[in-house]
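Q: Convert this sequence to structure tokens.
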Amino acid sequence: MSTADEPAVAPSPLPADFRAAVAAELLASGDVVVGWEPDGANVRPRGAAEPQYLGLVNLHRRASAAPAAEWPAMIREFLDHRAELLKTPAIPDDLTTIAGRLRPRLGRPCDRTDKTPPWGMPLPGTGLEINLVVDCPHGMVYVTQPMLARSRKKGEDLLDIALDNLRTATPPDYFERASDELDIYIGHLGDGYDAARALLIEDLMPDAPAGYWVAIPSREELAVCPVSFSALGRVHVLKMYAEENFQKHAYAVSDELFWVWHGAWYHFGVTLGDDVVLDAPEPFGEALQELGE
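A:
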């Protein structure tokens, strides 16, 4: 049997010093690492017969931006948060009884190898996925197909309720202009649903005839720029924002730039280099014509 700081499987891509810090905090709470995976660890909790998987990618991202001396406190906070989430009362069979706690989630597609994967639907044109979650005091719980079956509801029906809930939970002054020079607006409440608010762009922003450029590098970040002729020469700034924050922030979503127009989403290509090259989707020309008119 392996010890708490000796992996039982092939070495993990997670750095050895980070793994050692995680193993030490787990051991202090009575848990033991029995094996490392590429993105986490298999942990046997005190008194449990079977190990549980502990995902560590987002924790590692946060730790990478902090001095190693701060890691123990960060890891303890992460483990305490996880323990509180596991104590969350069971979700009732009928989700409509807790309809006010439903929220949308926008992110990368969930793992479908799980026995009960979350309900999800693709957001066309993005490679991203919309899920439903139940908002809890210490986190969120994904809505699964069995939950929907017990509630006798379709995910699409509850998604409308979830979007209304998120709209209600968004303050009127949600967006803040990044600077006087740039027509870029940043949304950041830090409640776990900033990226999901991209689904409400056309409700939250003033009307823009040619639509909006949108960047959602992480779960806690949303940046929007109304399309205009003057902004065309500076749209690469939003792409840079997406790439930089995607790399360094936890709960990463996308390093791409998107264009939203009349409710439809499109990938908007921006290649950064000595020269900035734009690869706009076909309808973008039509949008610019409307803007000119």
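The two ends are 72 Å apart (CA to CA).
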